[in-house]
Structure formats: C-alpha cells, structure tokens
Amino acid sequence: MTDDALVISDRTYKSRLLVGTGKYRDFEEAGAAIAASGAEIVTVALRRSNIGQEPDQPNLLEIIPPERYTILPNTAGCYSAKDAVRTCRLARELLDGHTLVKLEVLGDGKTLYPEMRETFKAAETLVADGFQVMVYMTDDPIAARQLEEIGCVAVMPLAAPIGSGLGIQNPYNLLEIIDNARVPVLVDAGVGTASDATVAMELGCDGVLMNSAIAGAQDPVRMATAMRHAIIAGREARLAGRIPRKRYASASSPVDGAFF
Q1: I want to staple 230 with a disulfide (CB 3.0 to 4.6 A). Which of 32, 78, 83, 198 is the partner?
Q2: Residue 250: is its pLDDT beyond 90?
Q3: Where are the beta strands (DSSP E) in the chain?
C-alpha cells in the first residue's frame, strides 16, 4: 500500500474511506463495522444521533471515541441554510469547539438531492463563522468551483442518489470536478458495493464517504472490510496508471526480435 495521505484542512489521514453511523441494527454492529472499515473519519447525523445532547440516552461517542476517530458532524435532515447552520453550531458546542463539519442541505425527502441555493448560503455563513466545511453537492463542476471559492475545505459530489446503491452514474462530471479542484474531492452517496468505491478512486477521487452500502449489507462487517480493500486498490491503481484502452488485442509478449 502506498504511504500517500489524505489531507483535509491540514489534518492528515491514512485512510481514504469515510463512514457513517446510521442504519445499523445496534451500536455493537456499528462499532464493529466502523473498526473493520479502517476509517479514521466518521460522520454523525446530529439530528438522528445522540452525542451528548440527550444525557439520559446511549451516547454514540461510546463506540466512536473522539480520541480515536475524527468526528464529522453532518446536517442530514436539514432543508434550509438556517437549520444547517444551527445544527453545526450545536455540534461545535457539544464537541468542545470542533469546527470540521459536513454540510448537507436537502431539496426534498424523496430524492435527497442537495438544495444548492441553501447550500451556498449555509456555506458562506459557516465559513465566515470559522467552520471548516466539507460540502455535499450535486455533480456540477461550476458549483464545485464556487464552493471552493467560498472557502470549503472539501467538495463531496454525489455519484448517485443517497442510499440508491446505483454506483458511479456521472463519471464525466466527476472527472471535470476532479481535474479542476484544488481541494479534496470525495464521492458522497450512491456507492453500492466494493467495485463502485474502486471506480471512484480510479477516476481520481481523493476519498469516498459511505453509510448505506455498509450498514445495509447482509454482513456489514464483511462489507466494511471489502470497502477498505476497494479504496486501497482503487487508489493504488490510479497511482500506478492503467494501460490505454484499445479496440484490438495486444500480445503480452511482443514478437519483435524473437528468434524464430
């Protein structure tokens, strides 16, 4: 495995796989799958998870301790910039000044597509307030550039709708974003199996964030292991450089100079 690292907002990570905490049967399964994934960044939906705002309820931080993982609070379930900003500020209070967040402002409950007008508004407010914003977005190269100009530390275009498992549906848009970005580009949403994660990395993404693909698998712990290897394989293949695609066969052992 290469020793190149993922750098987000001046922090360095060995793993390029980011995982979520939702949709598991229980905390025990979630903890085992997260550990098997090798992820160092774990995203938490503050509106659906307890990380201290409900003292009498089980605390998710018991299975993802902040001393071991970088906790990435996200604004899943927010449909306006106002709600997203409020959620991030609550996370900062609960996590002792933590400012790295995943901004997610949804447009509707059916597709869970980002509402980009509200996303821009929230990003501007959060960056001005000192947050380091990783932002869930459409696969729009222009929007990616604008969010980078606002000051977001990573852009996270969807590969397909959240939870769909459809895989990489937009490779050319992703390539355009990757080719022009000066901040990390991470696929967020749409991954269904290990090969999808590998394709994302081979395209040149800096990382992949996923939840449903692992938590919804028949064996989440085994799928988490598969995803860990898929991310490594895709990154290594990208760095190695694939052979050109050709229409016709090309012998592995050329005959030029052969003694016959």
Answers
A1: 198
A2: no
A3: 6-8, 11-13, 17-20, 41-45, 70-74, 100-103, 132-137, 154-157, 186-188, 207-210
Structure tokens at 242: 């694939």
215: closest CA among 26, 11, 7?
26
> Under a CB-based contact definition with an 8 Å cutoff, are residues 104 and 78 in contact?
yes
Residues recognised as catalytic? 102
Asked whether the whole model's pTM tops 0.70, one would answer yes
Mapped onto helix, strand or coil, the DSSP state of residue 173 is helix
Dist. CA 51–CA 69, nearest whole Å: 14
Alpha carbon distance 222, 34 (integer Å) = 11
Token pair 């997610």: residue = 104
* Distance from the Cα of residue 32 to its chain's centroid: 19
Rounded to an integer, what is the distance from CA 46 to the centroid of its chain?
Answer: 17
Which among 38, 41, 71, 44 has a CA at the least distance from the CA of 226? Answer: 38
Q: Which of 136, 187, 140 is nearest to 159 (CA)?
A: 187
Phi, psi for residue 191 in degrees, rounded to 5: -65, 135
pLDDT at 230 over 80: yes
Cβ proximity of 60 and 68 under 8 Å: no
pLDDT at 253: 66
Which residues have CB under 8 Å from 78's CB, separation 6+? 47, 84, 87, 104, 105, 106
Q: Give the model confidence (pLDDT) of 38-70 as tens digits.
A: 999 999 988 777 776 777 777 788 888 889 999
Q: What is the pLDDT of residues 86-98, one digit of tens each?
A: 999 999 998 889 9
Cβ(63)–Cβ(30) below 8 Å? yes
DSSP designation for 60: G
